Amino acid sequence: MTALANFDAVDETRLEWLAEAIWRNRYLPIPPEELHFVGDGDFLAVGVEFLQWFVRFGGLKPDDRVLDLGCGVGRMALPLTQYVDGGTYDGADVAASGIAWCNENIRSVYGNFRFKHLDLEHPIYNPSGSMRTVDVVLPYADEAFDFVFLTSVLTHLGSDEVRAYAREIRRVLAPKGRCFFTAFMLNEPARDGLRAGKAAIRFDADAEGPEIHADPANPSAAVAFDEDFLLACFLSAGLRRRRPAIYGRWSGRTFPGPTFQDINVLETDRAVSLA
Questions:
Q1: Cβ proximity of 136 and 168 under 8 Å
Q2: Please, where are the H alpha helices in 142-226?
Q3: Are 53 and 259 within 8 A, CB to CB?
Q4: What's the pTM?
Q5: How far is the C-alpha of 29 from the C-alpha of 12, rounded, in Å?
Q6: What percent of the chain is predicted at pLDDT more than 70?
Q7: What's the rounded Cα separation, in Å, for the pair 22 and 68?
Q8: What end-to-end distance do the CA atoms of the chain give, in Å?
Q9: Of the four listed, 169, 197, 205, 215, which is most buried by Cβ atoms within 10 Å?
Q10: DSSP string, 117-147
Q11: What pLDDT does residue 4 have?
């Protein structure tokens, strides 16, 4: 049984102990450097940091049924193997190489962890995909999950693709379930930071439109959305923000939170049907 299996509320001391234990666990498999296509930073340390955010801010429980959309090569999955107990984890990604590694090195050891390849077209991660992301139908049953998360996924999608994912997340999310996602969200404090030249990613603060690209020549590399627009995409699918966002450091805003990207937690809006 994992150390946090009996949590009813967040116990900071035990959560920090678990994070430290995972960080020091040299038996967890780390993918080779050539498969580190999921972002900067120490591979395991980033996953451990997000495990703590999932628990503290997202309300993740050890017995939740978890869906990781954009699981990559298991950066979030590995720490979760030490936390999800009594629940299940499903990871899905468009990059076949990451899924193959996860099945060989994680699923083979942890029977409640499963990984699937989504053959969706993406100009960076799966350019030869057989399906368009706007037509996505996730290979899971209705209301199959209690906790769905997307870390640094919306930052590489267009508006129509976000809407498609929002629709499917709402379908697979159980009543009282939560959706945790990170994004680059544009609001006035973020735009002020961009104008001041303090941002880590140089989006044009005064560009028009709800969807802005850091590099117009490579639009999928980094995408920011107007905050109200992004929330409206999810709200139209029946998902509303559960609590105020944590605004990250990426924009150079004056009073950032302790994360890099902005973090949101959504819940189902009962007023919107699945019809």
A1: yes
A2: 159-172, 188-195
A3: yes
A4: 0.93
A5: 26
A6: 92
A7: 19
A8: 40
A9: 169
A10: E--B-BTTTBTT-SB-GGG---SS-TT-EEE
A11: 44
Q: What is the DSSP letter of 245?
A: P
Name residue 149's beta-bridge partners: 68, 180
Q: Is the model's pLDDT at 3 over the cut of 80?
A: no
Note the Cα 117 to chain centre separation in Å: 16
Mean pLDDT in residue range 104-114: 96
Q: For residue 101, which phi and psi values (nearest 5 degrees)?
A: -65, -45
In contact, 174 and 144? CB cutoff 8 Å: yes
Query: To which H or E segment does residue 18 belong?
Result: helix 12-24
* Interatomic CA distance for residues 25 and 2, integer angstroms: 14
Q: What letter represents residue 186's amino acid?
A: L
User: Which one, of 23, 37, 137, 31, lies nearest residue 82 by Cα?
Assistant: 23
Count other Cβ atoms within 10 Å, centred on residue 16: 11
pLDDT at 39: 61
179: β partners: 148, 266
CA atoms of 72 and 74, how far apart (whole Å):
6
Rounded Cα distance between 83 and 61, Å, is 8
Q: What is the mean pLDDT of the chain?
A: 92
